């Protein structure tokens, strides 16, 4: 099993997962503060995978790319329609902007991804966000699911572009087809397994 480090930061306590593989290091999502954390830990990033572009998952994407020169993979090009920064600003009365970043490889329409010597299966599961994509490393029974599936929970569906039906159907038809032992590393909270959530998740049982 590869080594996984998890950083949690920002106003939504968002996870950034760092996976060390023989061919390099993958960072999944870039919450606020992770660029500084990586520097303090003297950790290098070779590829940045974005599960979706809600602001709490991408606030440090531009900084990580600038510091590490890594390729960025996401379902769609950078879009302020996806970041939710305007909605958050209107609700809170605050004003901020996600630093714009370039996506090097667009994943829409793809079922697999070759990166750092590994083959990743891609599962597009909209409902929380239109661009939500889960990264499945079948060789190690690992799934980085963003805000799709949590320990005893699922992603919120009350944001623009959200759909409870799309989310639950996507989880049941795509993620729940994976082996029980598949470890799920979500965008918030503790990791879990597909088998555990299939049997006990109150939103899906």
Structure overview:
Helix content is 23%, strand content 29%. The chain is built from seven helices and 14 strands.
Question: What's the total helix number?
Answer: 7
Structural class, by secondary structure, is alpha/beta
Q: Low-confidence parts lasting 5 or more residues at pLDDT below 50?
A: none
Please give the number of β-strands. Answer: 14
> How confident overall, as mean pLDDT?
95
Termini separation comes to 30 Å
> What is the N-to-C succession of helices and strands?
EEEHEHHEHHEEEEEEEHEEH
Q: Based on Cα principal axes, name the global outline.
A: globular
Q: What kind of oligomer do you see?
A: single chain
Helix content: 10-25%
């Amino acid at each position: 099993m590869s080594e996984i480090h998890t950083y949690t930061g920002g106003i939504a306590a968002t996870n950034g997962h760092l996976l060390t593989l023989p061919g390099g290091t993958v960072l999944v999502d870039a919450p606020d503060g992770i660029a500084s954390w990586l520097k303090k830990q003297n950790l290098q990033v070779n590829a940045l995978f974005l599960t979706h572009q809600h602001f709490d998952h991408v606030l440090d994407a531009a900084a990580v790319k600038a510091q590490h020169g890594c390729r960025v993979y996401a379902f769609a090009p950078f879009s302020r329609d996806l970041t939710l920064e305007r909605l958050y600003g209107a609700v809170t009365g605050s004003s901020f902007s996600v630093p714009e970043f370039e996506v090097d490889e667009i994943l829409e329409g793809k079922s697999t991804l070759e990166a750092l010597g590994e083959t990743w299966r891609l599962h597009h599961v909209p409902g929380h966000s239109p661009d939500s994509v889960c990264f499945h490393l079948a060789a190690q029974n690992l799934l980085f699911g963003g805000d799709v599936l949590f320990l005893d929970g699922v992603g919120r569906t009350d944001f623009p572009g959200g759909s409870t039906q799309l989310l639950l159907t996507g989880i049941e038809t795509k993620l729940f087809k994976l082996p029980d032992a598949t470890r799920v590393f979500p965008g918030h909270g503790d990791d879990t397994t597909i088998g555990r959530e299939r049997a006990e998740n109150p939103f899906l049982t």
